[in-house]
## 1
Amino acid sequence: MASRKPVNRPSVKHPSHKHPLHIFKAQEGDEIICSGCELELTGEAFKCTKSDCDYFLHKSCFDLPREINHKSHPNHPLTLLHSPPYESNAYGCDACGQYGSSFIYHCSKCQYDVHVGCAFLPEILEREDHEHPLTLVFNSPCKGREGMVFMCDVCKETVSENLWVYHCKVCDYGTHVHSCEVYENDEVKRGGGEEEAVLEALRMESLRNARMELANMRISNKINNSVIHFGDEPRYHWVRK
């Protein structure tokens, strides 16, 4: 009986990782974290070819542009880095205020840092609980107004004046950039470690939505809030094992 020849599985190199990657389909319940955006791995993805290396990337994270111009930081472009440029190996996102330790859009002149998910948040958001569309603004509507603080109208927490918010100017209604639906749907009582867990869930859910938005729009060179600049040289190349 003739033996089957082994199938050559194409692999691809990515500058964020030293080993080749091959195509991987994430299944529901895998509980795998993307090494780029640090969110749960879903759908089309890439996996390290080494069996003992747990490196995974969403396809959308694999295809992120190396440089963007963003409305939140108009004076300088933001460069994609595959790890934070700080000794702590972590950074605080200037959009949502949460910490990250992997892919980042960074301005070296200003030390301005944005999660890759936050960088592609939609400019206009519609919520079922509000009659008007909400607009993404890059600091609190209360910034510069002495004695006033901005409070999220969903979770009732104050938001730093330098963080991004979704805001309705007509009603002075606003929310965190990351959806607070978890509070409403699960009716969680805030307090102690439980509140911390809920906040992390909010970040995961909303950044996952932003990643999906990016995946849907990346075919076009025009993305909300961003003008993409692609270099002439390839970011990766195909190899065969």
Note: Residues 63 and 218 are 8 Å apart (CA to CA).
## 2
Amino acid sequence: MDSQLNPSKRRKISVRHRCVACYKMFNRREHLVEHMKISYHSLHQPRCGVCLKHCKSFESVREHLNVPDHLSKGNCKAIFTKRGCTLCLQIFEEAFALAEHKNKCHLSPPRPLGTSTQRNPSSSLAGSRLKAVALDCEMVGGGADGTIDQCASVCLVDDDENVIFSTHVQPLLPVTDYRHEITGLTKEDLKDGMPLEHVRERVFSFLCGGQNDGAGRLLLVGHDLRHDMSCLKLEYPSHLLR
């Protein structure tokens, strides 16, 4: 029947383009190409153990696996509920394998985040085997619409999961969005925060092994590190970033 219709009246079928990594859909091919250029998808990104979707972080994987039922589009949540580890998010084929894994899979409990937890860089790193540290920053929003990212909390953790530096940070601009549902931060938390310049000096001192020569000595591990480093206004050799 379609062949007998006037071509001008035929329903136009739009072809959508899907990212093979994160499965986002785009109406135009050039938009997909631009997405691939800026998304930096990698085999090292966290992925859903069911559909293998690439996610930006493990928290994104957790959200994907625990999406509300009315928003669920696949069977990832159902499979994860039956055969997934709620801590490391791995999926197992058999129930006994999951049970055996859960007996081994554990993390040490996090230390409460106070206003500031600090060590002396030279004393904590001197003579130690520390070769890498992990960095995480929490951002609050500035500007009229709260879209300007400002560093409000910094934490450094060594490869034994020990917190070696943790502090709240005084944002440079007035905060218009504390993003509390994500950061857990309030105005009261930042009232006695450390100035950004001092935080930057402390973090860089740790990365340089307590030396004052400005030479990076440790691998720096984290998610979207370039963004965190940009908000800290800190530069670090790219070959030491993981």
Note: The radius of gyration is 23 Å.
## 3
Amino acid sequence: MSAAPLVGYSSSGSEDESEDGMRTRPGDGSHRSGQTPLPRQRFPVPDSVLNMFPGTEEGPEDDSAKHGGRVRTFPHERGNWATHIYIPYEAKEEFLDLLDVLLPHAQTYVPRLVRMEAFHLSLSQSVVLRHHWILPFVQALKARMASFQRTFIGLEVTSGHAQFLDLVSEVDRVMEEFNLTTFYQDPSFHLSLAWCVGDARLQLEGQCLQELQAIVDGFEDAEVLLRMHTEQVRCKSGNKFFSMPLK
């Protein structure tokens, strides 16, 4: 069996939270009968105070320069938590050695390619959860993941594809329970090695991928080092992480 194939690809309503204020009702003793309540007087807020909280209603400004030029798939809104289901991959030294050979070669075709900081296999698209949905969402995921066995994968899954489709099917059921977007119809399971801003598929497809594949195929023990023992599925929602162990 040859080493895992390399692929080039491009990436692809909210509720308002409010608290009921205190309201006066007729006959509740809030003012004496026959008397007209005094009108409330609003004083203007000084500019010096307003300037302390720029863009409060719209949410924080999304500065793509702080994220390597990446732009959010959906705008940031207060109370919304970007959520993603995936299988983590703990890269060994041999894997990083291979990446140290692959990336410089790929950068001769697309210089702006940047190495991934962490590696994973996605089981869902990025979706938006309201904060109060997070715990019931994770509980539903844990119930769906409880019966799955561990498995092995490479850069792109060449065996065990059906088992990963079963995992995605369970994740999709939870997504549907919360009226969220399900995964792609015909997904390709893979580990992302590098990324860049913009669509660079034309530069990567063809000769570049063939040369990178040759490097992988010729790398010592490539078939072994590109396998991964999958022990858990993770859910990242905002800055919170949840782990669902597999049997």
Note: The chain is about 30% helix and 15% strand.
## 4
Amino acid sequence: MCTLEKRGNVFVLAITGTGEHRLNPTLVCSLRSSLRRVREEPNCSALVTTAEGKFFSNGYDLSWAQKHRDRLELMSSEFRALVRDLISLPMPTIAAVTGHASASGLILALSHDYVLMRKDRGFLYMGEVDFGLVLANWFVTLIRSKIGSPAARREMLMKAAKLTAAQGAAMGIIDSAHDGPKETVSAAVRLAEELVARKWDGDVYAANRMVVLREVLDSLGSDETVEAVANQASSKL
């Protein structure tokens, strides 16, 4: 489901395969397992997360969950745990978005400290309103903490705009746009190396991030949208 390699002091975590990288419990558990391995390393490291193929992640695996409330609860719970893991990780984190990032797939990218994206392919898309679904409170809390512009949030959440990397960079949703997947990952690794060179204490870095994102952490305890999704998911597939 994913691979983890170390390039000097930089970990590169890649979601493998050419599919949509739907965030079902199997993929999420694989990502969490990799993060546990990263956590075992000493200070002076950084993480880059990327994906193979046309998709960074196309969101929750609703075809797997369908109308099964228990599956939806598990999927939501495991994903929220993954976001909590990223927020508490004792090193800088960078998402290298090399394809489409939709719904919870975009939330995964935004859960990193920095977001870089290829500009020749892929959209940033929060399509809940298009599919008749209500946004989770914790999604919105995270988005507010990451995106300062109310106009940008309106485009994302209320208009369900499919945003290119260039548009995302101009709106402050991502940090920079790059020519292709290799260039995006290379830029992410270079940024990671610059951050590692600062020689920050990892535990202090994580503690500060947790203070900055305290409202997000507080919101991760529940997902009030599970029941609504359970009632609607199969008709929206």
Note: Strands lie at 2-7, 10-15, 46-51, 55-57, 93-97, 100-102, 114-118, 124-125, 176-178.
